[in-house]
Amino acid sequence: MIDRVDNARSTIALIMAPSLSKDLRDRVVQWRIQNNWSYRKLADMAGCSIGTIANILMYHRVYGTSTNPYRKRTGRPRLLDHDDCAYIDTLLNRDPTIYLDEIQDKLVEDRDTDRKYLVRGECSSGRSLGLDYGRK
Q1: Which of 86, 113, 123, 130 has the smallest set of CB atoms within 10 Å of its CB?
Q2: What angle do CA 90, 96, 102 make, to 5 degrees?
Q3: Which domain of life is it from (predicted)?
C-alpha cells in the first residue's frame, strides 16, 4: 500500500513498513513479561509503531501467541507444499549441482505431483536454493 502526499515543494512517498518476524514478535512479548517495558520502549527496541506493539500483546493475551492464528494467508497460493520442499532439500543435499529441470522431473516421478513449474526460492528450507534454470 503506497500513499502519496503532494504539495507545491515536494512529493513524499509514505510506504507501509514491513511486518515483524515471528521471532521478533516473540521477543517483544518476552521483553514485556521479563522487563515490564512500556509500549514506547518496546516499539523503539523492535523498530515498529506502538500500535503494532499493542496488537502483538493483545494477540498474546487473547490467543497465547504473538500472532493472530486465524489470520488468512495473503498472496498467491503456493505451488509446493511442505513435503515437496523437504523432498527438494533432500535432493539438493544429495546432489548440490542438480539442475532445475531435473528437480522438476523428480517431483513429477517420485512425488506424483502435477506441478510443472518450480518457482525459484519458493521453499523456505533455511538456505538459498541457488537453482540453475537448465543446461546451457
Answers
A1: 130
A2: 75
A3: Eukaryota
